[in-house]
Amino acid sequence: MPLFDVPGWSVSDDPIPDAGSRKRKRPPSDTGSSESRIHSAEVNLEKLVKKLTGKRDDRASKSSKSNNSSSDSKSNSRQKKKQSQPAADVDKKKNISLPMPLMTTTERAAKKAKRSHEIRSQASKDSLPSHSDQATEDSAESSSGLTSMQKNMKHKLDGARFRLLNQTLYESNSDDAHRMMQEDSTVYTEYHNGFRQQVRSWPTNPVDHYVQMLSTYPAKTIVADLGCGDAAIARALIPKGINILSFDLVSNNPYVAEADICGTLPLPGSEGTEGSTSDGEAHVVDVVVFSLSLMSTNWPQSIREAWRVLKPSGELKIAEVTSRFLNLEDFVSLVSSIGFKLKSKDERNTHFTLLEFKKVSRKFKSQKEWDGILSKANTLKPCEYKRRCMELYIY
């Protein structure tokens, strides 16, 4: 039966012509040449096996030799190290994993005392920065030996003590304040120690402003610093040739002369004669400075003294806490009635107001007229503090 004999289909019996194959055919070769190629391949294979086996053996021998030499060197180094190592170190290594023995009561007490000594030594190093005046040195010495917590508590107590003293000075007459500091010399020291702590929190210090300003004045200019405190202005400007006369209730260093600035200053000057207008006589002062020192209830008397000692057209400079002014114009009017004219005012600072006046001629005033002027001290209100600050000191 013919292939693909399907009803309805017919296949021609002629052979299909060979279109040619694209596959490359190997040329025919004889049997002898094929056997020679096989033999040659076997020989090459044996050579390759021998070559590879020989290399592996060489590598193995070299590796074993190097390992042996390395192990020998390590063993020798360990042996030498062990021989050179002291017996005490060997015993220490043996006991290094053992627990530490418990300390006796005496040893624990000695360790605690040593730790306390270290804390006191560190606290001594961290004590308050030293200043040139003796009052600050005493304060730094009193803070030595305290821990950080104790020093912080001491600073708070000093601050509370300062606020209590400050309010007392604002609300008392200058005579009473002077007597209080004469009876107890530590009051002045405690007040100024607290004042230094408060100054550190201020954005600016009026004293620095006056030091910078007065340093531009001619040499031998005479400045009276009334209520000078530590005499910072004198310390800064005397070396520059400016003559600074510093006055305060207590003299605790050579720069300060003791005086009640609301009384009679130990300086020449006069208020003129009755029935005439004048600048007074015998004055020697070019500039008077009040830097936060209009404190007592009779502070207007210190302005009167400033007029007495100032030369004609002399300068009066006042720096005061802004919150103390009930009405700045009333304050300026009071100072003007004593014999001054306002030259400038600076209210740019958030804490302080700076005022500058010039001395002018005035008519002689009777005691009754002066009583009326000096009774207006309430144009400046005293600095008052919250009660909790004083309770902190009390308790």
TrEMBL record:
Q: Where is the region Disordered?
A: 1-148
Q: What class of enzyme is it?
A: transferase
What segments bear the compositional bias annotation Polar residues?
121-133
Q: One cellular component GO annotation, for this chain's record?
A: nucleolus
A Gene Ontology BP annotation from the UniProt entry? ribosomal large subunit biogenesis
Low complexity composition bias: which ranges? 63-76
Q: Where in or outside the cell? A: Nucleus, Nucleolus
Q: Which Pfam families match?
A: Methyltransf_8
An annotated Gene Ontology molecular function: rRNA (adenine) methyltransferase activity
What this chain does, per the entry, is described as: S-adenosyl-L-methionine-dependent methyltransferase that specifically methylates the N(1) position of adenine in helix 25.1 in 25S rRNA. Required both for ribosomal 40S and 60S subunits biogenesis. Required for efficient pre-rRNA cleavage at site A2.
The protein's name in its UniProt record: Ribosomal RNA-processing protein 8
> Which organism encodes this protein?
Gymnopus androsaceus JB14
Query: Which lineage do the record's taxonomy fields give for this organism?
Result: Eukaryota, Fungi, Dikarya, Basidiomycota, Agaricomycotina
